[in-house]
Amino acid sequence: MKIAIGQIAVNREWQKNQRTCVDVMQTAAGSGARLLVLPEGVLARDIADPDLVLSAAQPLDGPFLSALLDASRSNDMTTMLTIHISTGTKRVKNVLVAIRTGKVIAKYEKLHLYDAFSMQESVGVAPGNEVPSLVEIDEMRFGMMTCYDIRFPELARKLALDGADALVLPAAWVRGPLKEWHWEVLTTARALDNTCYVIASGECGPRNIGASVVVDPLGVSIVRAGETEALIFAEIDPKRIAYARSILPVLSNRRFAAPELIINELQAVNPE
C-alpha cells in the first residue's frame, strides 16, 4: 500500500491551513496514496499566541473540516489529521479524525495530554476517555494515536493486540534538548514493541521539529522528512509484518495481560 505523510507548518489563519491541507490531499491522491497523514493541530497555531488553538477551535461540522470533506469526495483515499474541537466549556478537545469520501469514518480524542517539559496542554484541552477503534484500509488495519501518546507503550500495545498493522501518529513535537532523539527512539521502539508500522507526521515551523517518519515492523526507518515542509511517500507491506512477527513473536511471547484504560471519573463527568 502506498501511503503519504504531509509535513506542513501550521499558520495562524485557519483559511490558509485549510487550503494547504486540500492541496496536499489532492497531490497525495493524485500520486496514488491510499492513506495521507497530516500533523497534529492543523487548524491554527501561533507560537506567540498559545491561546489561539482555543479561540480558533471549530465543531466537526465547521467550515474547516467541511472543506476537507468536500475535497475527499473526489477519491477514496483516507486522510487522518487532528484539529481542536470546541466543546462549549473552558476546554476544547484534541481530536484525530479519519475522513474518506466526504465522511468522518473514525475519530479519536487524545488520551495523554502534554503536561511535560514546562508545558501544560490540559489547561485548555480536555482528555479523551476511549481507546479508538481501528480504521481499515484495503484490508490493513490502522490504530490511531496522537503525539504525546507515543511515550505510553500501553496504548500502542492495546491497539496492536486489537489487530493494528500500523500505528498512525499525527504530532506537533516541540523542539528542545534531546527531543529529536526522543522522537527517533520512541517511534522506533513502538514499531519494534508491536512488530507493526509506525506512520508519524510531525508539524514543522518555528516551534516544532518536523522529522516525519515511517518505521517498519523491524525498526527500519524507510522514509524520513527534514525540518521543512514536505510530502513524502512510502510503501507498507503486510508481508513485512508477517515476516517480522514470525521471527520476533513479541505479541505471542508476552506474559502480561492486555493494557486497560484507567478512566478519571472527574475528567469524564466535568471536562472543565
Key phrases:
single chain; 272 residues; alpha/beta; Nitrilase/N-carbamoyl-D-aminoacid amidohydrolase; seven-stranded mixed beta sheet; six-stranded mixed beta sheet; disordered C terminus
Distance between the termini: 42 Å
Instruction: Specify the overall morphology.
Output: globular
The CATH topology annotation reads as Nitrilase/N-carbamoyl-D-aminoacid amidohydrolase
CATH class: Alpha Beta
User: Mean pLDDT, rounded to whole units?
Assistant: 95
Compressed to H and E, one letter per element, the order equals EHEHHEEEEEEHEHEEEEHHH
The oligomeric state is: single chain
Instruction: Please report the number of helical segments.
Output: 8
What proportion strand? Answer: 25-35%
Outline the low-pLDDT stretches. 268-272
| Number of distinct beta strands | 13
User: Per CATH, which architecture?
Assistant: 4-Layer Sandwich
- The amount of helix comes to 25-40%
Number of domains: 1
Characterise this structure:
- With 272 residues, the protein is an alpha/beta fold.
- It has one domain (2-250): Nitrilase/N-carbamoyl-D-aminoacid amidohydrolase (4-Layer Sandwich), CATH 3.60.110.
- Helix content is 28%, strand content 25%.
- The chain is built from eight helices and 13 strands.
- It has helices at residues 14-30, 52-55, 63-72, 153-162, 179-194, 238-247, 250-253, 265-269, and strands at residues 2-7, 35-37, 78-85, 92-100, 103-109, 125-126, 135-137, 140-144, 166-171, 197-202, 213-215, 221-224, 230-235.
- Strands 1, 2, 3, 4, 5, 6 and 13 form a seven-stranded mixed sheet that branches. A six-stranded mixed sheet has the order 7-8-9-10-11-12, covered by helices on one side.
- Strand 4 and strand 5 form a beta hairpin.
- The longest helix has 17 residues, at 14-30.
- The termini are far apart.
